[in-house]
Each structure stands twice: as structure tokens, then as C-alpha cells.
Amino acid sequence: MLSEQLLAEAKAGSIEAMAGVGYTYLYGDGTAKDYNKAVEYLIPAADKGNIKSQLMLGHCYLNGFGVTKNFAKALDYYLRAAKSGDAYAQLEAGNVYHYGWGVERNLITAKQWYEKAAAQGNENSKTALAELKGI
Questions:
Q1: What is the pLDDT of residue 30?
Q2: Which of 57, 58, 104, 133 lies most in the core, judged by the most C-beta atoms within 10 Å?
Q3: Widest distance between CA atoms in the chain
Q4: How many domains does the chain have?
Q5: pTM to 2 decimal places
């Protein structure tokens, strides 16, 4: 359930609280899903460097959750988190390049991101690397 305290902290500017509220609305964790409200809280947190918010916004822009679908913005947010070392964001950045979602397909760049994620134990990246064997 979305606590009043978490909501108050988010409204007061706590980056971690904004990320938490955004997560709660995005995934319907204890409250009804509300993509518009999720994005409202995730954008300022992501722009202040919150890695998980950057990752979640990547998903929002990739899928059109609460925003107009925009592959370039999805990649931008994924790359922000990926460059900070988030393995799941590295996987997603690899996927964008692997499948050419809004960018020119680039298997070499995809492989580089998958390798970074796999080095951190991300199993999905290891599977993707197996698909790209020989590149």
C-alpha cells in the first residue's frame, strides 16, 4: 500500500521517495496502476540521478506507459542507468541495439552492453550473448 509518509516525502523532494512512489504507481504495488502518476514522480528522480528511476523511465518510454512511446528517450534513460553500472539497464541497452528499436541495429554495441551485464551475473544477458556468438 502506498503510505502517506512515502507520498509526503516524495512531495517534499526526496529522490528515493519519488522513485518509490513512481515504482508503486508503475507496477500497481499496493495501489492501482497509474502510469501518468508514475512518470510524474520518476522524471524528477531520474533527472537527479536515481538509477532505478532511469531504468523504469526507459521502460515507460519503450512501451508508451504514461508517455508517448519514444525509443530515443527510452535508450537515453537506459544508457544513463547502464553507464552507472546497472546490469539490468545494460541488458536493456543491449536489447535496444540488438533489435534496432528506434536506432540502427548494431550487434557489436549490443554485445558490448550484454557483456557488461553478463559480467555482473545477469542471466538474460548471457542468453543474449549466446545468440550473438561469433560477432
A1: 87
A2: 57
A3: 53
A4: 2
A5: 0.92
